[in-house]
C-alpha cells in the first residue's frame, strides 16, 4: 500500500485562510507572517514563553515573559484556533471612521466564531547593517513600521477609554485649540512636547492594562554572512505602551537637542496623538484622513524605521544574544517539503531555500 505523501504545512497551523499545500501561500509576504505564527506555536510546544517587552512607571521598557496561548488567546495548537492572516480585527471597527485596515494576524475561535487577538508581525534579521560588525551581545534588528500598525496601536489604547472619554478630554484640556491648521508643521511642532507629556499621562493610566501589539521574531545569521547561526530563532512581543517608546523616545531626544524638524518618528507621535485626540472628542477617529493630511512633506509608505543600535537597548537579553530555537529545529516547523515552495526573494526565505541540509 502506497503511503500518502505529506502535504506542505507549518507546525501548529491546522486551520487557516491560507492553504499551505499551494505555492502561493509560501510567497514572500505570506511567509513573513505565517512562519512567525508557526514559530510561536513551536515555542509553546517546547513549553517556552515569548520575551515580553512592557512599559513601567518610569517610561522604561522592561522584560517579562508571555505564554503563547495568552498572546493568541488560545492554545496555538488547539482544534479551536483559526489563523486569519491579513484580516481586519472587527472589534476595533466601531473605533474608527471609514474602513479598518487589515492586521497581519487575527486569531479566532472556531467554536464561538469570535476574534481573539490582533497581532502585527515583524520578522526581523539579526544583526542589521548597523550592528553586524559589533560583538554578538550588541547585535540588533532594524524595525520598519507601517502606518497601519499605528492605527492598531491607537485602537488598542482607545479601546480602554470607550465610555470614559471625559478622562481623555481631561488630559488633553484646551491647550491645542489654538492650532488652526494641523497640516502645517510650523503650527504643530511647537506643541510636540505637550503631546508627548499627554501621551505619557495616558500610558501611566493604562500601565495595568497593557495589550500585546507586535510579535517580533528574530532570525540570526553569522555576522553579515548569509549563514544561519546555530541558535537562530526566537520571539519577542511588544506591548502597545512599550511600542510607543520606539518613536516617542526619539522625538523627545530631538526636542532635547533643539531640533524643530518633523522627521518620521516625530510625525508618528503626532499621528498617534491626533487619533486619540479626535477619539476623545468624537468617540471615533478618521485614520486615513489623519495619515494623508499630516504628512509634513514625507512619504507615507512607512510610519518610521529604527535601526538595530536603537532597538538593541530595548531588546537586550539572553534570548537576543543566543536565540532558543536552533537550525536543526527548523525542519520541525516547516513540514512536508514546504521549503521547496518558498520563493527565495528575501534573505530568510533564500537562506532556507538554499540550505537543503537543514531538512536532511
Poorly predicted parts: none
The share of residues in helices is 25-40%
Beta-strand content: 15-25%
Q: End-to-end span in angstroms? A: 25 Å
Q: Please provide the ordered H/E string of secondary-structure elements.
A: EHEEHEEEEEHHHHEEHHHHEHHEEH
> SS-based structural class?
alpha+beta
- Report mean pLDDT, rounded to a whole number: 94
Largest sheet: 9 strands, mixed
> Number of helical segments?
13
Total beta strands? 13
Number of domains: 1
Task: Give the overall silhouette.
Answer: globular
Radius of gyration: 21 Å
Features:
9-stranded mixed beta sheet, two-stranded antiparallel sheet, about 350 residues
Structural features, described:
The chain has about 350 residues and is of the alpha+beta class. It has one domain (about 10-360). The chain contains 13 helices and 13 strands. It has helices spanning about 30-45, 70, 145-160, 165-170, 185-190, 190-205, 240-245, 245-255, 265-280, 285-295, 310-315, 320, 345-355; strands at about 10, 50-55, 60-65, 80-85, 105-110, 115-120, 125, 145, 210-220, 230-240, 305, 325, 335. The strands form 3 sheets. Strands 2, 3, 4, 5, 6, 7, 9, 10 and 12 form a 9-stranded mixed β-sheet that branches. Strand 2 and strand 3 form a beta hairpin. Helix 4 (about 165-170) crosses helix 9 (about 265-280) and helix 8 crosses helix 9 (about 265-280). The longest helix is centred in the last third of the chain and has 19 residues, at about 265-280. The chain is globular and about 70 Å long.
